[in-house]
Amino acid sequence: MKRSFLFFLTTLFLSHLSFAREINVVKMATGEITINLSAYQTGRSQSSRTFLSVLKADLNRSGYLRVTSSKAAINVTGKCAANSTTIQTSFQLYNAATRRRLMGKKYTQSTKKTRALAHKIADEILFAVTGKKGMASGKITVVSNRTKYKELYICDMDGSNIRQITKDRSIVVAPRWAPNGKAIVYTSYKRGYPSVFLTGRAKPLASYRGLNTGGAISPDGHSMAVILSASGNPELYVISLRTGAVKRMTRTRRGNEASPCWSPDGSKIAFVSDTSGSPQIYIISKSGGHAQRLSSGGSENVAPDWGKNGIVYSTRQGGRYKIAIADPVRRKLKVLQTDWADYEDPSWAPDQRHIVCSRTLKYHSSIYLLDTVKDSPVRLIKASGDWFSPACSP
Amino acid sequence: MNIYKWVSFSGLAVCAMILSGCQNPNSGGPGGLGGVTGTAIDDDVFLTDQGGLPTDGDRTMFEYVYFSYDSSGVESRETQKIEAVANYLNANSSKGVILEGHCDERGSREYNLALGERRVLSVRDYLISLGVNDSAIQTKSYGEEAPLEMGHSKDAWGKNRCCVFAIYTK
C-alpha cells in the first residue's frame, strides 16, 4: 500500500516536471529572445564584475530576454573597467541575423552607482531589442520590522541596495509612491495617531481625528484618495492637494472602506469595501456617484493596484491568499498559480508585466517577484526580519 | 447627535482650522473645507485635526472589550465594561479616554486598520449613548500592527480582537 502510494506520488511529480518543461520550451520559442554577452569584457576589478553580473541577472529577470553563451539572436560586445572611484563602460548591440547595429553607448559613473548603471543599461538594451519599458531601474518601497519597529525602506527592483527611509521608532503602514517616483506617501503613528505623511515633508497630508490611512496620490499629482474616519466611520475621501478641499466619496454607515488606488488615467478609484458582508473590490468615478463591484470569486478580495494591464489584487481562495488580475472592462479574471503560502499586497512593476508582492509562510513574510506571463515566483529580499506591504515606483 | 451640538462642534472645527491655518492655506477660496466658504461639502464631517490631542493614557484601569472575528459589533456580555468607563467619565469631567482598537493578524493589514477603527467607534457610540461627551473620547486603531498577545493560536487571536481604554487627564 505504502509503496504504491509512493509510486503514485513519484509519477505525479514526474508528470508535473515534464509538463513544466514543456511550457518552458514553448515560452522560449514564443517569448524569450536569446542574447549573448560573452564578448562583454570586464577587468579584474570587483566593480566591473559586479556590473556585468547585475546586468545579466536583470536581462534574464525581464522575462523577454535569455542570456546565453551559445548562438543567440542578439550579440553584445563591450568593455567595462573600474578603478576605486569610477566605472567606465561602452557597449554595442547587434542583431546576429542581419548584423545590423541596434545600439552603441558609453558611460562613466561613480563606482558607488555600479548597480544603478547596470540597471539603466539593462532597461536600455531591453528597449532597443523589444521596444518595451523595463523594470530594472525601478525601486520598491517596503515595510520591515527588522528593528523592533515598523520602518519604511527602499530597495532596487532586484531586492538589493536596501536603505532605511524612516527612523521614527513607530509603525509605518500602507506606503505608495507619489506619481513622480520621488516621494512616498505612507501612514505613520509617529505623532501618536495614524496620519498620512509624505517623505520629505514634516507636516502630515491628512491628520484628522480618528483614522487617516491608505493615502494614494492621483496620477496628475493634484489629489489624494484617503480613508478617514472623521465622520464617525471609515470612509473613502478625495482631498485636493492644491486647495485642501475634502470630498467624501462613500457613505457606508455599516461598512469599512480601505486601500484606494487610482486608474492609470486618473478618472477612477478602486478600493475595498465590506458593505456586502466581506471585503470586496469596488470602482468609483473620481467625480463620485455609485460604486460598482468588481470582484466576485473568493471569500475576500483586498489590496488592489490598478495598472495598464488590469487591476491586481489579493484574493482569498481555499483559505489562502492568491494574486488575481482583473480586466475591469471585459470582466475577465486570471488567478496566478502559486504554492501554499499567502501572497498579498501586490503592486505592478514599472514594466507592467511583473508584480511584486509579499509572500507569507509560517508567519514569516518576504518580498517576491511574480511574472504574470510565467507564474514563477522569485524571492527578492533575503535579509533577516519580516518584509511586507511592497509598492513599486511608477 | 442633535443639531445644536453639530453647529457648535463644526463651528469649533472651523475656528481651529482658521486659527491654525493648517490643511487649507486658501481657506477663503473656492473648495475650502466644509463651512469655511459657507458651502459645506459634507453635512456630517467633523474635520478636526488630531494636533494637540493626548496620545497616551493609563490602560490599567478598565477591562478590555473583546470582539468576534471580522466583527465590530459590541456583544451584550461586553456592555458592562463600557458602562463602567461611562460612569467613570461622567463622574470625572477632567478625564478623557483613548479607545485603542486591535485586530487579530488574519486579513489584510489595511482592511484591519479600518476594522479596528470601526470596533472602537462602536464602543464610542455606546459611550456617547450613555451621556459621555464626544470631546472626551479619542479613537486610535492599531489594526493588526501592535498585537497585545504574541503567538498564532485561536486563543491569541481572540485576545487581540479588542478595545483598550487608555484614560488621560484633559
Please tell me about this protein's structure:
The complex is a heterodimer of chains A (394) and B (170). By secondary structure, chain A is an alpha+beta fold. Chain A folds into 2 domains: 102 residues, Rossmann fold, CATH 3.40.50.10070; 254 residues, Neuraminidase, CATH 2.120.10. Chain A contains 3 helices and 28 strands. A 5-stranded mixed beta sheet of chain A has the order 2-1-3-4-5, covered by helices on one side. A 4-stranded antiparallel beta sheet of chain A has the order 8-7-6-28, with no helix packed on it. In chain A, strand 22 and strand 23 form a beta hairpin. In chain A, helix 2 packs parallel to helix 3. The radius of gyration of chain A is 23 Å and the shape is globular. The termini of chain A are far apart. The relative contact order of chain A is 0.09. Chain B is an alpha+beta fold and 170 residues long. Chain B has 2 domains: 47 residues, no CATH class; 105 residues, 2-Layer Sandwich (60s Ribosomal Protein L30, Chain: A). Helix content of chain B is 35%, strand content 13%. Chain B has 4 helices and 4 strands. Chain B has a 4-stranded mixed beta sheet. In chain B, strand 2, helix 3 and strand 3 form a beta-alpha-beta unit. In chain B, helix 2 crosses helix 3. The longest helix of chain B has 21 residues. Chain B is globular, with a radius of gyration of 18 Å. Chain B starts with a helix and ends with a strand. The relative contact order of chain B is 0.17. The N terminus of chain B is likely disordered. At the A-B interface, strand 12, strand 15, strand 16 and strand 20 of A face helix 3 and strand 3 of B.
